[in-house]
Each structure stands twice: as C-alpha cells, then as structure tokens.
Design brief:
28% strand, alpha+beta, 188 residues, four-stranded mixed beta sheet, globular, Double Stranded RNA Binding Domain, two-stranded antiparallel sheet, 4 helices
Length: 188
Amino acid sequence: MSWHKVIAAAGVAVMVLPATSCGFKPLYGDHASSVSQASLAQVRLPPLRDRVGQLLHIRLSKGMHPRGKPRNPVWDLVIKLTTRTEKLGIRRDETATRANLTLEARFELRQIATGRVSFKGRSVITISYNILESRFSTLASRTDATRRATRELADNIKTRVALFLSQRGAVRVPKMPAGGTPKQVPAP
C-alpha cells in the first residue's frame, strides 16, 4: 500500500472518530440501528390518485418496504400531492423553451389504532426540463423530470419519517420467543 493511501485512510479515521464519540448513529446502512428499518416496515402507504402519485407511491414502497407490504402496520402515511408546471425561458414569439415542474407533498403520519396525527411535514421539489420542438421530445423530457422529482420527493419523505420514528423510539424488538421469530411491538 502506498503512503498516500495510508495517509488518506488515517485522515478519514480522524474525521469519523469525533462523529462516533458524540453519539452519532447512521440512519441507514450496515451500522444503522435496526429500529429505523423496523419502524419503516410498520408504516402503511395508502394509494395515491394520479400517475405522479402512483410513481411516488412505488418509490416510497420500494424504499420503506423492501421486503413487501407491512403485515401489522401501526402507522398510515397520508400524502396530499400537488403538481405545478411553470413555463420559463420565453422566446420572442412567446413560446417557452424551459419549464419547472414542482411537486409538493403534505404528509401526515397517523396512528392506525387512534387516528391521531403524530407527525406532519411538507416537502417541495422543483425540477427543470426542456421544452423542445418535437412534442415527443418534450413529453420524454417531462416524463424524465417527473421520475427525478418523485425519486427525490420519496427519498425526502422517507428520511423525515425514519428520523421521526427513530427519535421517537417507535419500535422495540422483544427477545425471540421459543421456536419463533421476533415480532415488532410498538413502544409504550
């Protein structure tokens, strides 16, 4: 191993060490608390209406439920999604050459048993795309912008919900019963 790599590795270790000593715990990844993934597995995602809502629902499902739908959900994640398009870059002949696609999601995390709202949030994502000469090209450009926006919106919502649930300590995993698998139980 060259000295450059040794020095670089030592530098990374020096930067990471203070973060671990201050109580920093990653939300995701190999060293993350299993509580965050177990918490997300207890969140049910009601379907959303239009195509953009369906794309958002699919993204959230893949991110929050990689092993399939929750068996015993404790929470409902209710999302109200609005979509706006604003034309920009107006030419002299008053045709637009660029547009902003804005997705706004207002979401609530509700306890299924009581219907009580425990967490509210709002996330706004704006993505630009080109308006081209061909209708097909413009449609492809807008479709790509919609996919990018729903991906970012889903990641933002998932992170905020996971952070809320991990701070709350929403799930405790009891000891494994004899001959069975542990069940996730809401914290008191």
